[in-house]
Amino acid sequence: QVHVVESGGGLVQPGGSLRLSCAASGNIFSINVMGWYRQAPGSQRELVATMASGGGTNFADSVKGRFTISRDNAKNTVYLQMNSLKPEDTAVYYCNALLNFKVDGPTFSYWGQGTQVTVSP
């Protein structure tokens, strides 16, 4: 069984910073991609940033230059450093892991339970 657990959300003023963490645990062989998505009330879940095991990254245009993503592959952990936060960044942030249980096995997608980020004066 795989567990994906996020932490680090909270309330921050506009212009402030937060750092989210996400750790995946279980009988995992490898994690191909780890990343962050967010969902605001009344909106669909959208990509924020992802990072492949080799280091390649993908960012939403709305966060480029403000957010950075990093991984610790040995710990199956991904981080999202969010700077210059704006009220429109307010959402529930979800961690996602695309992983394999064996060599050349199929890839499975696992989600965390989400962590709330609120940007407000």
Describe this structure as you would to a colleague:
With 121 residues, the chain is mostly beta strands. The chain has no helices and eleven strands. It has strands at 3-7, 10-12, 18-25, 30-39, 46-52, 57-59, 67-72, 77-82, 91-100, 107-111, 115-119. Strands 2, 4, 5, 6, 9, 10 and 11 form a seven-stranded mixed beta sheet that branches. A four-stranded antiparallel beta sheet has the order 1-3-8-7, with no helix packed on it. A hairpin with a 6-residue loop joins strand 9 (91-100) and strand 10. The N and C termini lie far apart (40 Å).
Proportion of residues in extended strands:
over 45%
Oligomer: single chain
Q: What is the rounded distance between the termini?
A: 40 Å
Task: Give the CA-based shape.
Answer: elongated
Helix content: under 10%
Q: Please provide the count of β strands.
A: 11
Order of helices and strands: EEEEEEEEEEE
Overall pLDDT score: 96
* Most strands sheet: 7 strands, mixed
Number of helices: 0
Low-confidence parts lasting 5 or more residues at pLDDT below 50? none
Query: Taking Cα atoms only, what radius of gyration do you get, to the nearest Å?
Result: 14 Å
* Overall SS class: mainly beta
How is the topology of this model organized?
Elements: E1 3-7, E2 10-12, E3 18-25, E4 30-39, E5 46-52, E6 57-59, E7 67-72, E8 77-82, E9 91-100, E10 107-111, E11 115-119
Parallel strand pairs: 2-11
Antiparallel strand pairs: 1-3, 3-8, 4-5, 4-9, 5-6, 7-8, 9-10, 9-11
